[in-house]
């Protein structure tokens, strides 16, 4: 008589996916926050790096933009620490912060276009990484159907 061994490699694969994507999002959110922090400091100091665009619909004072980016940067860096602990509140807040970073960078495109496009792209990857893994580490496809961890 042979003994049957039961182990669950799919559960481990799901956990690895969840851990990997959450760690990716945490690092990317931290970097996006750090870049936003630097951008905020530059704007508050009214550095000559920024281009002034006349007659822009969403025109704000450069210092105002600086404070917005500084606050988003600090929040993103704090939330990234929560993501490393795989807290659900951090995933939800991370998606919200990344969404706000996208909006802020879209509205400030004329002031620093290349940086804004890079930040929008990074934030898009953060949102993807935080949303692709469901509760308990299950991976979902675009239609919302649960996939096996192998495909």
UniProtKB/TrEMBL annotation:
Domain (DUF7144): residue spans on this chain: 22-135
InterPro entries: DUF7144 (IPR055568)
Record keyword Membrane present: yes
Keyword flag Ligase: no
Bilayer-crossing regions: 21-45, 65-84, 89-108, 114-133
Keyword line: Membrane, Transmembrane, Transmembrane helix
Protein name: DUF7144 domain-containing protein
């Amino acid at each position: 008589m042979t003994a049957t061994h039961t182990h669950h490699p799919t559960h481990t694969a799901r956990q690895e996916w969840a851990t990997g994507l959450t760690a990716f999002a945490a690092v990317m959110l931290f970097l996006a926050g750090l870049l936003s922090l630097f951008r905020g400091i530059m704007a508050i100091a009214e550095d000559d790096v920024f281009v002034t665009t006349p007659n822009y619909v969403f025109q704000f004072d450069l210092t105002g933009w600086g404070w917005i980016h500084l606050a988003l940067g600090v929040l993103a860096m704090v939330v990234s620490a929560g993501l490393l602990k795989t807290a659900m509140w951090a995933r939800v807040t991370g998606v919200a912060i990344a969404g706000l970073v996208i909006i802020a960078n879209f509205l400030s495109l004329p002031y620093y276009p290349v940086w804004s496009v890079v930040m929008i792209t990074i934030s898009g990857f953060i949102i993807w990484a935080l949303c692709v893994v469901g509760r308990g580490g299950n991976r979902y496809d675009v239609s919302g159907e649960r996939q096996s961890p192998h495909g």
